[in-house]
Amino acid sequence: MADRIITEVDELKAVTHPLRVRMLGALRADGPATATELARRFETDTGTTSYHLRKLAHYGFVEEAEQRDARERRWQASQPTTTWDDAALAATAAGRAAMSVMRRHQLAAIERAVSAYEAAQTDLPPEWVAASGMSDVRARLTARSLRELEERVEALVEELAAADADDPAARTVLLHFGGFPRIDPAGWADVADES
Which parts of the chain are coiled coil (predicted)? Predict the structure, then answer.
């Protein structure tokens, strides 16, 4: 299953709906599900989840999964991840708006993950608490180096995940990577960088 790289605004807009993006994430994280199972999980009705699953299927984000019996229709994600071509989509106002919505969805997902972690932190083994965390790093890089950094991080994640695949101590972890050029607020150009 190959990753999905979106270059068209309509495709990206198809997943900007809050329920669709969460359903797609759930199918990727937890595997195939029916519209009824997703409706229970997201506290909505089956008609709503069915409609949104059909929209996701129309754009190739989900597909029918192997059915356990003839009475159900199970869905699965068509790709392990979805990314988008920032340069292609940034060429139009609609593309920039859709990317902005998706970034906000990503930030909301990080907020949910951090909240869930904090709620469960006292029940986690000390080694998981010690290994967990967030940081922010500043570095002077070229656009080429930032792209290379992202590619190296992804390669390292794949390498370590493959090495830990059969280890019973391994758990699914959420990793978030973002790199943006720092944009100084107007009037701050003369203030020394304190980073």
Answer: 139-166
Round to whole Å and give the CA distance between 23 and 41: 9
Q: Where do you find CATH 1.10.10.10 in the chain?
A: 4-125
> Quick one: DSSP state of residue 5?
E
Could you give the angle at the alpha carbon of 164 between the alpha carbons of 162 and 170, nearest 5°?
135
CATH topology of domain 4-125: Arc Repressor Mutant, subunit A (1.10.10)
Separation CA 48–CA 185 (nearest Å): 42
Residue partners of 33: CB distance under 8 A and separation at least 6: 26, 27, 41, 74, 75
pTM: 0.76
Task: Enter the tokens of residue 27.
Answer: 């199918």
pLDDT tens profile 76-106:
999 988 889 999 999 999 999 999 999 998 8
